[in-house]
Amino acid sequence: MLSIDQYRLGNGLRVVLNEDHSAPLVAVNLWYHVGSKNERPGRTGFAHLFEHMLFSGSENVGNNEHFRHVQSVGGVLNGTTFFDRTNYFETLPSNYLALGLWLESDRMGFFLPALTQEKLDIQREVVKEERRQRYDNVPYGTAFERLLHLAYNPEYSYHWPTIGSMTDLEAASLDDIREFFATWYRPDNCTLTIVGDFAPDEAKRLVEQYFGGIAAGGPFPEFTLERQPAGHEVRETFASQVQLPRLYRLYHLPKMGDAEWIHADLLTTILASDKASRLDRALVHEQQIAQDVAAYVLPTEATGIMLVQATAREGVSIEAIESAIDAEVARIAVGGLTEDELTRAKNRAEVEYAHQLETFDARADLIGMMSTYFGDPGRVQTWLDPYRSATAEDLAHVARKYMIPENRVTSLFVPQS
Amino acid sequence: MTTPMTTMPLDRTTAPSPTEPRPYHFPHITRTTLPNGLRILVAENHNAPLVSLRALVRSGADHDVAAKAGLAAIVADMLDEGAGERDAIRIAEDVGILGGSLGTGADWDASYISLDVLSRNTEASLAIFGDVTARPTLPAEELERVRAERLNDLLQQRNEPSAIAGKRFASLLYGTGAYGNSVGGNPDSVARITLDDVKAFYEQHYIPNHSSVVVSGAIAPAEAIELVTRTLGDWQSRPEPARPTVAPRPIDASRIYIIDRPQAVQSEIRVGHVGVARTTEDYFALSVMNAIFGGVFNSRINLNLRERHGYTYGARSQFAFRRQAGPFVVAAPVRNEVTTESVSEMLSELRRIRTGDIEDRELDDTKSYLMGVFPATVQTASDIASRLVDMELYGLPEDYFDRYRENIAAIGKDDITRVANKYLDPDRVLIVIVGNATQIREPLGQLGFPMHEMDIDGNGIA
């Protein structure tokens, strides 16, 4: 069991401490409960652009000085944005805990005075290059974006990917940035997790000192996060500059952490994880029609997502791939899972979880996630329990209920002729 | 005893001072060598219920002949396609039951087998690990499948700008010899590889006196050595193969090579030349110099191209430190319109670092980063295992990790200037750009370098 100590400051900031002296390091990790799902159509890509801006300085920290302060003492740092959250984190030599808290509190409480049009213009260009590098200039780069467009109505918050659209990025103004900050970047919308080599009383004193004076905000805007099911499969075939056809499929699931989502997580391991997994074995090893297969669930808070993909070998039609996948899913749905397969999937879940807890930074991030999505950092202790108690029938039930045409969208990437 | 705490007004204007640093020690390493020549290293660490197993075979793609480029990688791929009594599927099933994750692969210098497992299953896992390392069955039918996968992989890379740039850069620098192909080979060479080639490579190179095994994590050294001996003690030694010499092609003057990708919305840029071997005595000075130049986020190249100009999502430089001199390369994907400006900035930064224009703060920050970051990069059993594999591969001294800090601390401005002048040559670089030729050809001409255009396979275009 991890020793987890959690409390709230007067301004609503949730603080979680996990003391561990096995290395002279400390991980400082903040999860803000805001992501691309809190954007509006016409202003997509905003949460992520904003994450870039938060590295461009605050009242007492100059442009790019955040990176310099952390790296020059031997720390590592970054930030990431997803649908439901934005996280910022640094792992420091443990005698620099106060430095991490100073930097993070300065940008939580004193960001706006340092904001300039010039900084925004530079980061806007950087983010546009990020989009070109990761989405627009590489084969299959827009696949996830296309799936989201097929899967959700235009006004639903998961309709667009975190990177946003070029047009919307162009439109972002300083006023937008200010409003976004005021709405979401506040202590009562954040979990601060500290993991590692610190003295708890001293850490609590420092947290109060640096964060205690930052004001909470007003009410949060309302978002409708109830998905409207299409009731039928939505499909497309998309020709682009790729060499091999690839199938991308999204199945709707209950949200992360629900029992059926956990069963779906185990099911994707059984479908595609190693050579002995169902799709690998059938499509890659035995029939030798696919170059690669993958299946996984995403950590999403509003509604659940399972992704399945498979690349056809040269000369194999994408239709052959699709029917081979459907045949394997059908076998599982009628109860074809073995106890051995289930054990292997559970073991894999256990090992992956052990790996996440192994480093201070990944452990802090996991705790931040439990706190943000479930309001309960302590769930890090019990997370694996529903995995351990899952049965083969639980998984077959998920295949029958969710892995059906009416509950999926399919995008077929094919080479341009 | 507690002292009453008075609340001082918080001064936010300057960074808080650190407290006393806590000591860090790299785990103790237990070493032994078996009678067959196999070296074993064990680093015990009980932070997690996990064990990482690594085998290092000191031959990699540097042993491939051009006509059969990709052989070392295919051999590594074949190791877990059947070993001991198990076929490929059975290996995967049994590793899965043990909560393990098995990997095999090759790079330019070596071939590797890795198995990360739950520590309670170490004994059974080591038996499979030993089979994959020393008793692979190399079945003919699996070779055909592995070959087809590799060919499809090579096909897919034809649309990946970063892969194309890397291949063309290596080929222009090293020709058809070692380091000049890609580790994975090319469609012609992969098609030529026979089962006899695979078996011959395996027999010649996968021998205990040319290999090391590393065990890291929640296991006692004596037990680890006992278990490795049980599964690999009978592995037969043979004469060690000689390493072929890498022969880079001299660069007479800077040249631009454009590989046209008409649909490109970014130019993938590589600027560089031959670097230096990992064993160089200037390793520490070069590490600091490269970190200042382009090795970390706050380096000159990234601050210039990304943070000052907004040309790219990320620019970096790297010495590919290998057994022999790998490339030094500056790399960035930039939008088409600023391709020429980006190349200019790269070249001017290369010139500047040779002039001795280095700020005290820049040097101090970089050194303290390199010295301080080490513990954060070796938190896991797997991280520690990788460090020990490096130690074995490059013949680093036993006290290497203990003396790392003082070696970095000793580097001064003069060292930076000296190695920048010795190892960087901005007047003789290859400039390889995968991009939209129609849009970038004319502006690039303004740089005044000889310019060549080629297709993605390196065939010249008149």
| Model regions low in confidence, pLDDT < 50 over at least 5 residues of chain A | none
User: What is the chain-wise order of helices and strands of chain A?
Assistant: EEEHHEEHHHHHEHEEHHEEHHHHHHE
Largest sheet of chain B: 7 strands, mixed
Care to count the β-strands of chain A?
Answer: 11
CATH topology of the largest domain in chain A: Cytochrome Bc1 Complex, Chain A, domain 1
* Class per helix and strand makeup of chain B: alpha+beta
What's the CATH H-level homologous superfamily of the largest domain in chain B? Metalloenzyme, LuxS/M16 peptidase-like
Summarize this structure briefly.
The complex is a heterodimer of chains A (417) and B (462). Chain A has 417 residues and is α+β, with helices and mostly antiparallel strands.
Task: Explain what this protein looks like in three dimensions.
The complex is a heterodimer of chains A (417) and B (462). By secondary structure, chain A is α+β, with helices and mostly antiparallel strands. Chain A has helices at residues 46-53, 65-71, 97-109, 117-136, 143-151, 166-171, 174-184, 200-211, 259-271, 278-286, 318-333, 339-358, 360-374, 379-382, 385-388, 392-402; strands at 4-8, 14-19, 25-32, 76-81, 86-93, 190-196, 234-240, 246-253, 290-297, 304-312, 408-415. In chain A, a hairpin with a 6-residue loop joins strand 9 and strand 10 (304-312). Chain A is globular and about 60 Å long. Chain A starts with a strand and ends with a strand. In chain B, the strands form three sheets. A seven-stranded mixed beta sheet of chain B has the order 11-12-10-13-9-14-15, sandwiched between helices. In chain B, strands 1-2-8-3-7-6 form a six-stranded mixed beta sheet, sandwiched between helices. In chain B, strands 4-5 form a two-stranded antiparallel sheet. In chain B, helix 1 (71-78) packs across helix 7 (195-205) and helix 10 (300-308) packs antiparallel against helix 11. Chain B is built from 17 helices and 15 strands. Chain B has helices at 71-78, 88-97, 122-134, 140-157, 161-174, 187-192, 195-205, 221-232, 283-295, 300-308, 339-353, 360-372, 374-377, 381-393, 400-409, 413-423, 437-445; strands at residues 29-33, 39-44, 50-57, 82-83, 86-87, 101-106, 111-118, 211-217, 255-260, 266-274, 316-321, 325-335, 430-435, 451-454, 460-461. Chain B has two domains: 29-232, Metalloenzyme, LuxS/M16 peptidase-like (Cytochrome Bc1 Complex, Chain A, domain 1, 2-Layer Sandwich); 255-461, 2-Layer Sandwich (Cytochrome Bc1 Complex, Chain A, domain 1). With 462 residues, chain B is of the alpha+beta class. Residues 1-6 of chain B have low confidence and may be disordered. Chain B starts with 28 loop residues before the first strand and ends with a strand. The interface between A and B is large, with 81 and 85 residues.
